[in-house]
Amino acid sequence: MATVITSALSAATAIIVCLLNNHFQRKRDDAKREADQARQQTELTVHMQEMVAAQRDGLTEIKNEIGLINYQIAELKAHVDKHNSVVERTYELEKRTDVQEEKIKVANNRIADLERCNEKAGS
Description:
The protein has 123 residues and is mostly helical. The protein has one helix and no strands.
């Protein structure tokens, strides 16, 4: 009977040791898992902050580009208006030149008529 009691005590001791070992291993694994989750959460937070900062920088860059494009468009519009003004004035000058050329032709014809009349009168 002493052997049975000794065996039972040995078995109970082995079971208690296994339970204690299992308990401490589980605590260690849980602590490690929590630390990994906390590290992953921190990495995720940092990554998201970097993405937000990159997007903010990108938006700022886009706004600056849009402002530059608007400025360039305004400058081009001013140049086009100036060019159109020159074209309109050139068109008006060409019309005046045509009128002046027509007047010169009429004046030359009158002079020629007067010279012919003068030649007939002088002959």
